Amino acid sequence: MRYGKYAIIVMLLFFAAIVFAEDLQEKRVEAKMDADGVQRMEVLGGDYYFDPNVIVVKVNVPVELRIRKTGGIAPHTFVLKAPEAGIDIDETLATEPKPVRFTPTKTGRYSFECSKRLLFFKSHKDRGMHGILEVVE
After folding, report:
1. 108, 107, 86, 103: which is closest to 38 by C-alpha?
2. Between 20 and 30 A from 22 (CA), which of 48, 82, 127, 129?
3. For the whole model, what pTM was predicted?
4. Helix, strand counts (H, E) of the chain
5. DSSP character for 128?
6. What is the Cα gyration radius of the chain?
7. How far is 61 from 64, CA to CA, in rounded Å?
């Protein structure tokens, strides 16, 4: 009987580790350059995630992110504040794609996140809704 309890605990820890590892997976995508010279990418915000969560763009080249959320009633935002790189975005996500345009002026890694939080619960960022904009040469 004692060994059965230990086996259940070990199995629960194993499955918790799998779920936790999935939350930490990086999805890195490089924005595609269109014929008009603008780097474009679609970014999807869902239940406490962004897809992709690492966006790679070139410095001094215009960028258009088409941001949207999956369905559901939970409100989400896309916030990316990097004034040193010419980026200042704070948009509420809707199910219809919303184009957000900017031209990054400095290479580096800049964090983006959902700024929502319900009362005393964990913020959406703390629950996994964050990512990185990587600006490269």
Report:
1. 103
2. 82
3. 0.81
4. 1, 11
5. T
6. 18
7. 10
- Tokens representing 83 are 């004034």
- The pLDDT tens digits of the residues spanning 3-21 come to 666 556 545 444 444 344 4
Preceding amide of 99 cis, omega within 30? no
CB neighbour list of residue 109: distance below 8 Å, 6 or more residues apart: 132, 133, 134, 135
Tell me the percentage of the chain whose pLDDT exceeds 70: 82
First vs last Cα of the chain: how many Å apart? 62
Helix (H, G, I), strand (E, B) or coil at 50: strand
d(CA 24, CA 39): 26
- Show the CA angle centred on residue 70, arms to residues 64 and 75, nearest 5°: 90
